[in-house]
Write a structure and sequence with these properties.
By secondary structure, the protein is mainly beta. The protein has a single domain, classed as Nucleic acid-binding proteins (OB fold (Dihydrolipoamide Acetyltransferase, E2P), Beta Barrel). It is built from 1 helix and 6 strands. A 5-stranded mixed β-barrel has the order 1-3-4-6-5. The chain is globular and about 55 Å long.
Length: about 120
């Protein structure tokens, strides 16, 4: 049996311009928020739409490509892996976050709608 992989694919739109910063030795990291949408019919037959926001992080060359190519509202197809981590906030409280670490992305064609 092949080894199972941690793989996430999202199709959505950026909620804001990527936040890019330079860390040790000129390496870049980019953070962005991507909205995905879904809809279903409730028990009354009414269509209900929901939006989920996903934090996506890119490192190195991928972060550089994100910085050059992506802006708020851009439609993208993303592929990465899901990571859960914890950290201590400035207030001393322990926080936990889930993020998608980006491996690759493609721009959605203009006018295309996210599924």
């Amino acid at each position: 049996m092949n080894t199972l992989k941690n793989k996430v694919q999202l199709i959505g739109h950026l909620g804001y311009d990527p936040e890019v910063r330079e860390i040790a030795q000129g390496r870049k990291v980019a953070r962005m928020s991507v909205a995905t949408h879904s809809s279903h019919r409730n028990a009354n037959g009414d269509r209900v739409s929901t939006t989920q926001w996903h934090t996506v992080v890119a490192w190195g060359r991928t972060a550089e490509m994100v910085e050059r190519m992506l802006r708020k509202g851009t439609g993208v197809v993303l592929e990465g892996r899901l990571v859960h981590r914890s950290y201590e906030g400035k207030d001393g409280q322990k926080r936990q976050v889930s993020e998608v670490v980006l491996n690759d992305f493609q721009l959605l064609a203009t006018g295309a709608k996210a599924a």
